[in-house]
């Protein structure tokens, strides 16, 4: 007889809270212990709601590809993202994906490189007095600002330099507020005027004003523009609603600000921690493009630099993958109940010893030509399957150019005494920020 599927094993839950407290206090530590004790599929509870954690690539492949129609995005944070491409499901998602996809194709990404150059040249100029005075630089804030300017210039045709601080303040409130609401047993409606709710809605309002301001300026200009915002304004030849455009703008801005900004931060951290790697990147840059920022034609020649970027994204992937099951399913021989939260931590999958020997070691050679082939779902910096992040190629080009700009002009060294550890909110950031000292390599 074939045994009936059973629920995945896991640590004993609190009768009311389930595993919320342990998960909220130290997600990576808690999940690492659970993996050690119970294996690659762990049964959990978030309050009274069943949850399943997956680490093995085979199981993740079922979630994101083989049985993908059974798993949908949760809608808890539509107050922030509305019906943007990151939150909707089904036909609405497919329609939005078709609209957005052309703007992330290689031709478009390559065409944006001169705009990225302009943003990076400004960064290099702003950093010169900081390097001359050996003043510590809060790199996390700098890289998130850079990521915001990248997406604003290339996709929205906007200069958000003056708005960067407002975006930072609002995004920080929303990031922590969404994490808090996710792990609450009782969620008060946002209209209840608690201090946290007022701060959360105030942050949404600030970003609304920014998005609607961009829309109004573009509508008033009445000119044609070759960017994504222009395409959104005239979706398939029909003027789209301001609310629909707002949802896409905030999805793009916050994804770039948090995910790309955090990825660039970890990349600079790696360069500061491994000066021999930074020097080898510098040598490759000189041999490939001299003292200029890499052109589109030069990027394929930055083979070692790309290996450094890929390995950094392995050690420090910035996102989580979260789905909700529509109907009961089976993954890895275990039952997944209907309406269960099913989630993946690329941070932990990228440390699976079966697929990544000595997983905590930084080793760009893992991605060298001739290295063993990867399981398609063992490396997930941008997710996988049909809902893989559209901006992956954009992020890689931005990373390569940022490394080139920084390493060509500066050596980075970590400020002594700071504690660097990942804080796994919705995007994995350095918990206490990241301070560096800049040393000029000479003026170009």
Automatic annotation (TrEMBL):
The keyword Iron applies. One of its GO terms (molecular function) is oxidoreductase activity, acting on paired donors, with incorporation or reduction of molecular oxygen. Its cofactor is heme. This is Cytochrome P450. It comes from the Bacteria. InterPro entries: Cyt_P450, Cyt_P450_CS, Cyt_P450_E_grp-I, Cyt_P450_sf, Cytochrome_P450_monoxygenase. It comes from Candidatus Segetimicrobium genomatis. Heme binds at residue 389. PROSITE patterns: CYTOCHROME_P450. Belongs to the cytochrome P450 family. The keyword Oxidoreductase applies. Keywords: Heme, Iron, Metal-binding, Monooxygenase, Oxidoreductase.
């Amino acid at each position: 007889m074939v045994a009936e599927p059973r629920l995945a094993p896991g640590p004993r839950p609190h009768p009311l809270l389930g595993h919320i407290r342990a998960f909220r206090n130290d997600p990576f530590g808690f999940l690492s212990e659970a993996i050690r004790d119970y294996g690659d599929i762990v049964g959990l509870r978030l309050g009274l709601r069943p949850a399943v954690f997956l680490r093995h690539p085979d199981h993740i492949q079922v979630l994101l590809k083989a049985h993908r129609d059974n798993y949908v995005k949760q809608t808890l944070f539509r107050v922030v993202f509305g019906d943007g491409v990151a939150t909707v499901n089904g036909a609405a998602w497919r329609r939005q994906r078709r609209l957005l996809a052309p703007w992330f194709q290689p031709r478009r990404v390559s065409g944006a490189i001169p705009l990225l150059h302009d943003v990076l040249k400004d960064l290099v100029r702003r950093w010169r007095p900081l390097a001359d005075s050996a003043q510590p630089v809060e790199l996390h804030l700098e890289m998130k600002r850079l990521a915001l300017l990248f997406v604003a210039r290339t996709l929205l045709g906007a200069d958000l330099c003056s708005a960067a601080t407002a975006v930072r303040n609002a995004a920080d409130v929303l990031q922590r507020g969404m994490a808090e609401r996710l792990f609450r047993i009782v969620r008060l409606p946002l209209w209840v005027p608690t201090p946290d709710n007022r701060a959360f809605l105030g942050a949404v309002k600030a970003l609304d004003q920014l998005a609607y301001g961009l829309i109004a300026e573009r509508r008033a200009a009445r000119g044609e523009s070759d960017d994504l915002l222009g395409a959104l304004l005239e979706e398939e030849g029909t003027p789209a609603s301001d609310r629909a455009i707002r949802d896409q703008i905030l999805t793009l801005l916050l994804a770039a600000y948090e995910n790309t900004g955090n990825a660039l931060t970890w990349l600079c951290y790696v360069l500061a921690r491994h000066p021999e790697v930074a020097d080898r990147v510098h040598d490759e840059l000189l041999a490939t493009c001299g003292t200029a920022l890499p052109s589109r034609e030069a990027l394929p020649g930055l083979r070692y630099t790309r290996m450094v970027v890929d390995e950094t994204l392995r050690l420090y992937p910035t996102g989580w993958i979260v789905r909700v099951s529509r109907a009961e399913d089976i993954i890895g021989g275990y039952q997944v109940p209907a309406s269960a939260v099913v989630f993946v931590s690329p941070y932990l999958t990228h440390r699976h010893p079966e697929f990544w020997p000595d997983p905590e070691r930084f080793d760009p050679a893992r991605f060298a030509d001739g290295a063993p082939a990867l399981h398609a779902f063992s490396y997930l910096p941008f997710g996988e399957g049909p809902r893989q992040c559209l901006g992956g190629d954009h992020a890689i080009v931005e990373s390569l150019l940022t490394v080139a700009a920084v390493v060509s002009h500066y050596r980075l060294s970590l400020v002594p005494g700071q504690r660097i550890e990942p804080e796994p909110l919705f995007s994995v950031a350095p918990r206490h920020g990241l301070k560096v000292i800049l040393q000029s390599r000479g003026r170009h």
